[in-house]
Design brief:
The protein has about 170 residues and is mainly alpha-helical. It has one domain. The chain has helices at about 1-10, 10-110, 115-174. Helix 1 packs antiparallel against helix 2 (about 10-110) and helix 2 runs antiparallel to helix 3. The longest helix is centred in the middle third of the chain and has 102 residues, at about 10-110. The chain is rod-shaped and about 155 Å long. The two termini are about 60 Å apart. The relative contact order is 0.08.
Length: about 170
């Protein structure tokens, strides 16, 4: 570029043209260096932002997987408790039925040994009263068993559902 300019200019201006050409080269070189530095800084900041986003995404996925695992464990625990509940209820029902049969056999034996109609009516009245009381007591025991174990079943599910929400709220507050 300098040779074309110097061929068309008179002798004194050749030095000025060379100086201007050198200045333009310096300006272009400085501009290129600044653009390169700016692009490098932009690329570095972009990489940092992508890394942060990846870390947040990875953390979110890990949290999601942890929540899923904890909820599965809570459901499994709840299922085991439900199975125990069913076993306890059936055991209680079996006890109630055995008691009713034993008392029914005892009442029948007494009726067979009764000497009068008044004795039979008294035995039946006592048997009926005891049967009603036993049914109410058995019903109360069954209700207590079901309520107690229902609380046990719900507790792990509640804990596993609320804990991740609380952790997320703490993390957002920090």
């Amino acid at each position: 570029m300098t040779s074309k300019v110097s061929a068309s200019l008179p002798q004194g201006t050749e030095e000025v043209a060379a100086h201007v050409a050198q200045g333009l080269d310096n300006i272009v070189k400085t501009g290129q260096e600044q653009i390169t530095r700016h692009l490098e800084q932009t690329a570095t900041l972009s990489r940092e932002q992508v890394d942060k986003a990846n870390q947040l995404l990875t953390k979110g996925l890990e949290d999601f997987a942890t929540i899923g695992r904890l909820q599965f464990e809570a459901i499994l625990s709840g299922s085991q408790l439900a199975a125990r509940t069913i076993a306890a209820v059936f055991k209680e029902i079996d006890g109630i039925n055995r008691n009713a049969v034993d008392k029914g056999v005892a009442a029948t034996t007494k009726i067979l040994g009764a000497r009068s109609i008044e004795d039979v009516i008294a035995i039946q009245a006592d048997y009926f009263k005891a049967s009603v009381e036993d049914a109410l007591a058995g019903s109360t025991r069954l209700s207590d068993i079901v309520v107690r174990i229902a609380d046990e079943v719900v507790e792990p599910l509640k804990a596993q559902t609320l804990e991740p929400v609380l952790q997320n709220n703490r993390r957002q507050a920090a």
